[in-house]
Amino acid sequence: MDKNQLSRRNFLGKSAIIGAAGVIGMSALSSCSAKNQTVDYEFPPLLDLAPDGKPLKAGLVGCGNRGTGAALNFLAAGHDLHLVALADVFEDKVWDCRNKLMKQRVEVPEQNCFWGFDAYKELMALDLDVVILATPPHFRPAHFDAAIQAKKNVFLEKPVCVDPVGARQIIATAKKAENMGLTVITGTQRRHQRDYLETYKQVAGGAIGDLVAAKAFWMQSHVWFRTREEGWSDMEYMLRNWNNFCWLCGDHILDTHVHNIDIINWFMGKHPEEAVGFGGRAHRLTGDQYDYFSIDFDFGNGVFSHSFSRQIDGCANQLGELIMGTEGYTNCKNTIYNPDGSVKWTYEYPKDKDGRSTGVVKVSPYVQEHIHLVTAIRTNKPVVEAERTAVSTLTAIMGRTAAYTGQKVTWEEMMTSNMKLGPEKYEMGAVDMEFPVPVPGTAHKA
Predict the structure, then answer these.
(1) Which SS3 state, helix, strand or coil, does residue 289 take?
(2) N or C: which end of the chain has fewer CB within 10 A?
(3) Would 350 be classed as within a structural domain?
(4) Within a domain: 49
């Protein structure tokens, strides 16, 4: 059977030897939030701009739209910040990114532009303080490990992997970064967003009592896709259409919905113990992914979260989170309600010149997370967020696995699974892989 056949055997198979990465505890996540608990959480410094300090040179690995945006966010975080290197699998992506940056008066030296599967190694050999990792998520574990081995501080986009093996590798590399005194900030920007942070403080302080239930949702129109062009090999086609192949992006329950899943884990104070759910494909034109997921996450002690995501055109859309407590509920972002629906508390946004609420936080969370990165480096107070984001990513993988197979999936199974998606080697050309769309209830069969 092809190793990428999406079967329960492949998803849940136990490794004979788990290794150190497989048995690391989830120390970043404590027990479930409760009324009047002590808040055990490291809040980021909410500065409008990072403090001045030594010049910082950064390199970008992954020159697509998100990578380009992340680079500009880094440059906006403070003074004396410089982007000096670019790397991507595709040469045209490198030059396109460089041209976009030049329009923003950011010029990257041509000799520091690299392309190909090993381009990241050439970039990391340079004298850099920070590496921004924004390739398709499949490559994140290997690139993260290389960055830490090269003693670079890292901005790590989410999701941080696509399979359990990758999640455990991220956790192990995070431990290395901590031991080396490096800083690693991840792209879970809601944890740097001022209204979310203040709402979390209220809830952790007992504003809605004990937490009893939650839901998380990301429903939107179908995102971008690429049709195959003449002359593209299997590998080039998949890489240029990466957002539609599970081995590259992990499906949209990871690629986008992981944000909402991360919020529920954060507010609950732990990851779920097991998941059961369903999903399906109705409209997608390319790739091997689902159009929708509906997952029930069990946090134990009778606490559940319904997590659902969808990417289909022409449907009702909504995005966000909701957590119920014994004394009220919250949208997690800016409002706490009494049980009868009346407002108990709201976040106070900055006001405009006419004294009206702007409805937006003072600093974009996309910039705020980079302010945190630069501040941690310049004040020599390192912080590593990679483990907690790996936990949320693995939570999404547990939900995906439950939907693909139609089976109940446990956290223990995820932490010992030997599932590793993708080809054995990376090279342009034909790829000997099959991409069946998973069929629940039969996906366990060869």
Answers:
(1) coil
(2) C
(3) no
(4) yes
